[in-house]
Design brief:
It comes from Flagellimonas profundi. It is a single chain. With 671 residues, this protein is of the alpha+beta class. It contains eleven helices and 37 strands. The strands form eight sheets. It has an eight-stranded mixed β-sheet with strand order 6-5-9-2-1-11-14-13. It has an eight-stranded mixed β-sheet with strand order 26-27-25-24-31-35-34-33. Strands 21-20-19-22-23 form a five-stranded antiparallel β-sheet, covered by helices on one side. The longest helix is centred in the N-terminal third of the chain and has 17 residues.
Length: 671
């Protein structure tokens, strides 16, 4: 009894603290605060968040899921103004849409020593359609200033009662206090999943609840529908499972360099429907495996059925394949044909839109599913062992557990003797096994016609090179001139082509001059820009002013000039997330510096070699002096597209050596 009493006392104390936050009751102290008490660098903070999610029942429409939300947000400075607009996703499925209502808000400011408020008006509320599966409501608060405190509340009612959006418990700003209460009738059985590094405890309990229902029964002897029936009303009692979270001081989730999707690491809780158990109805299991998810998607009319359609391309494909013998020739010909004909409309998704692949083929435009299902179907028609691969894009996040919405993208795959080749025809510059970066997200799931499936690795293994060769002439006035030749392979070549073809050449060269340290480019040439099977090579002449310092008759020259790495991208003391480069890579710089007449090398940097553990990468810096020529050979090697967080300190130290060494100078003195 003592233990139970203590627990009850703690809950009462916590609720007492939570109840101090009442909508519209903001204190002067909150508005006058100049910085966050735990994070002085924060631009804004969520002082309080409350979510109450519960089920309602209506005799005409059945069950609905209701989410009532209250935010209190503090704005510390102008960089925090973005938090004055709150975005609320509203989902849609099978002709049903979530609706937002009961939107209220106040902005609180200080005018002298007086606390004043301004009410949210209708013109601050805006709803828009994002796609056929999602709408969005935007709530923009009025008269927001540095120091403002915002109180916002709203209600979302959802007929999609089997789906529950995740409960976010961490944001890009600190969260001082959060309270979540979820009430689920015993008829619905949910599985709970959590992610993130901040520990969250979910307290569970049960409560009795009743709802009013009406129903009809057929009288004995009634011969016609609608006649001889009796309407009944009454209460139905059931148990409700209560999930309660109360926690404080959740730190900001800061996006760090080389993080694919910060949302993968956000502290949050997700509830997924596992089963239903209604009175007088059989127990229905919805528990999913990745195999089950893949098979259910394959069975969609706008997925699997689209793969069986061939008449719309049959004639074109037979003409294309005429005279081709090997499977490789056929695959490449089909892939290039689809890339050339089809244009991606920038929509992802695993299903086709209205009209499907036939309409997309006719209009030569489609979403990712239409283009890559079309490609898969053509591969099959040509006798190749082709199947679609379901993917979650980087922006969609890593699916940590099997759900029906875990995938949002599809590519094509050819199963060869000992490997799988992946194809994505949404991008004009893609190649087999060189897909857009959005698709490089750990693993996908290949699904076959017989319903079986297999996990497929998506991360590239072949290293992408960026090799720069530069010859430099030095003038005493700080001006350098010379030639640069740069070669790109694999994903570096893919990214280069995408940049090059997305703008005019003048715009591209202007951007290149800035990227290269405000040099002036001349005689620009490019090789293999359209030959995707070969490396891209660009070469040009250049001139740069103020490239080095001249002090007291000595020249202080950075051997890599504008190519040097001047800043360590990893500044945090620790890191919880993997370092995600997307693909393994190697940058190499070979620089030859012609020493001007009348000068000799007084000193130059020592060579160095630094390696990461487990052969994950290295930095090698060599420099030699031969009469009037200084030769520099620098290589930075990363052998994996993703490095676990435990290597962060090693990688940070590697970059420290890179920055320090590449900042060292050659000293030239007059003879």
């Amino acid at each position: 009894m003592k233990i139970r009493f203590i627990l009850l006392f703690l809950i009462v104390v916590q609720f007492g603290f939570a109840n101090e936050f009442k909508f519209g009751k903001v204190s002067k102290e909150e508005v006058m605060a100049k910085e966050h008490h735990l994070d002085p660098e924060a631009n804004a903070a969520i002082l309080f968040k409350k979510e109450w999610v519960h089920y309602t029942y209506d005799n005409n429409v059945g069950w609905s899921l209701v989410r009532e939300v209250n935010y209190r947000i503090k704005i510390y400075n102008k960089d925090g103004f973005e938090w004055a607009t709150l975005g609320v996703p509203l989902y849609a499925a099978s002709g049903m849409e979530e609706n937002i209502s009961s939107i209220k808000g106040y902005t609180f400011n200080m005018e002298g020593d007086k606390l004043v408020s301004e009410k949210l008006k209708k013109d601050g509320i805006f709803e828009e359609e994002v796609n056929k599966y999602r709408n969005k409501a935007s709530i923009t608060m009025p008269n927001v200033k540095e120091g403002s405190v915002l109180d916002i509340e709203y209600r979302v009612s959802s007929p999609i009662y089997w789906y529950m959006d995740e409960f976010k418990l961490q944001y890009q700003i600190p969260l001082d206090h959060v309270e979540i209460k979820l009430e689920i009738p015993e008829y619905f059985i949910f599985r709970k999943y959590g992610k993130g590094s901040h520990p969250i405890e979910v307290n569970q309990s049960k409560e009795n609840r009743s709802i009013n229902v009406s129903y009809t029964t057929k009288d004995q002897g009634a011969r016609y529908i609608g006649r001889g029936t009796t309407k009944h009303t009454g209460k139905v009692e059931f148990m409700e499972n209560i999930h309660h979270v109360i926690t404080d001081n959740i730190p900001a989730l800061l996006d760090e360099k080389y993080t694919s999707n910060i949302d993968n690491y956000r502290t949050s809780i997700k509830f997924e429907l596992a089963a239903t158990r209604f009175p007088n109805s059989p127990y229905k299991n919805y528990s999913l495996t990745w195999e089950g998810v893949a098979k259910s998607i394959y069975d969609y009319d706008d997925f699997g059925n689209e793969l069986d359609k061939t008449n719309y391309f049959k004639e074109d494909l037979e003409n294309l394949l005429e005279g081709l013998g090997s499977d490789e020739e056929k695959a490449i010909a089909i892939f290039e044909f689809v890339k050339a004909k089809m244009n991606w409309n920038n929509y992802v998704g695993v299903t086709c839109e209205s009209g499907g692949v036939r309409k997309a083929y006719k209009e030569e435009t489609g979403n990712a599913a239409e283009i890559n299902l079309m490609l898969t179907s053509m591969f099959r028609y040509a006798g190749l062992k082709a199947n679609p691969v379901l993917i979650s894009t980087r922006s969609h996040g890593i699916p940590l557990f099997p759900t029906s919405d875990g995938f949002n993208y599809v590519v094509a795959a050819l199963e060869m003797q000992d490997h799988v080749l992946l194809f994505d025809a949404t991008e004009k510059n893609s190649l087999p096994n060189i897909m857009p970066l959005r698709a490089l997200n750990w693993t996908g799931r290949l699904i076959r016609e017989d319903g079986s499936s297999a996990q497929v690795g998506l991360m590239p293994k072949k290293k992408s090179l960026d090799v720069t060769m530069m010859n430099v002439d030095i003038q005493e006035d700080g001006v350098i001139s010379g030639e640069i030749r740069e070669q790109f392979t694999v994903y570096n070549a893919f990214s280069f082509r995408n940049r090059y073809f997305s703008v005019s050449e003048d715009s591209f060269l202007e951007s290149l001059e800035k990227k290269q340290g405000d040099i002036e480019i001349s005689d620009y040439e490019i090789q293999n820009k359209g030959n995707l099977s070969k490396p891209v090579v660009q070469s040009f002449g250049f001139v740069k002013e103020g490239a080095f310092e001249a002090i007291s008759g000595k020249l202080y020259v950075s051997p890599l000039f504008h190519l040097a790495t001047l800043e360590n991208p990893f500044k945090a003391d620790k890191r919880e997330f993997p370092i995600d480069y997307g693909f393994p890579w190697e940058d190499r710089y070979i620089v030859n510096i012609n020493i001007p007449d009348g000068y000799v090398v007084e000193s130059y940097p020592e060579p160095i070699a630094v390696a990461l553990p487990d052969n994950l990468g290295k930095f090698i810096y060599n420099i030699t002096v031969n009469q009037n020529l200084v030769s520099v050979d620098v290589k930075v090697d990363i052998n994996s597209g993703i490095l676990p967080a435990r290597y962060y300190q090693d990688l940070k130290e590697l970059y420290r050596h890179i920055v320090e060494k590449e900042s060292e100078k050659i000293v030239l003195t007059k003879t």
